[in-house]
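[Meeting: bench + compute handoff]

Bench side (C.D.) handed over the final construct sequence. Compute side (W.E.) agreed to return the predicted structure before the next meeting so the bench team could plan truncations. Sequence as handed over:
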Amino acid sequence: MNIGKAFSYVFEDERWVTKVLLGGLITLVPILNIATFGYMLKTAHNVAYGNPHPLPEWGEDFGDTFMRGLYALVINFVYFIPYILLIVVFSCIVGIPLAGGETWEETGLLALCLVPIFLMVAFASALVSYAALARYVITDSLNEALKIGEVISAVRSNSKPWVMLFLVVLLASIVASLGLIACFMGVIFTAFYAYCVMGHALGQTVAQQSGSSTYVPDMPGYDPSSGYQ
């Protein structure tokens, strides 16, 4: 994976300022901000199929962008169910004894022992959710993305690209947090920028898995062989 490209490609777009500003503002609007996840998936699709201008225009079928974002949330929710259940169990193990009058010192050791399990389940859930999102990018089918057995099998057979994607997402999240250091408004735009980075990294992973680039945009002089591989 070309990690540097995932972080730099945004600034190669002639309209990147407008696209990032609009994306940042959209993240402020409840419900409407679901579209930012769809934008990430559209970016991934463009990268995976060699579009020389990966960043989509916000004016291109916003309804489709929103629905893709909604599907992304559904996919993530399904694959993070084990993680969510673990949070519930963790809360009960710690919360019920505390509510019954026990001290934190009496329950803290047990809670601490569960932390490694908590982290491993979160990590595994993230990997399979990335693979499912990649499957959606390729097929445009929510049903395909929710074929849990096949997705888990794909990750188990070759986990390396998904671990690499996880690390890039983690790095992008750290970059996004830098906006919080600057000011509240800063984090809005750095968070959206992080989604763009994630989209590019996901698209690269899809392209690596498929081994070819087949998207041919309607523009003169475009050579699909020069797209992302």
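W.E. noted at the follow-up: Confidence is low (pLDDT under 50) at residues 212-229. C.D. will use this when planning the next construct.
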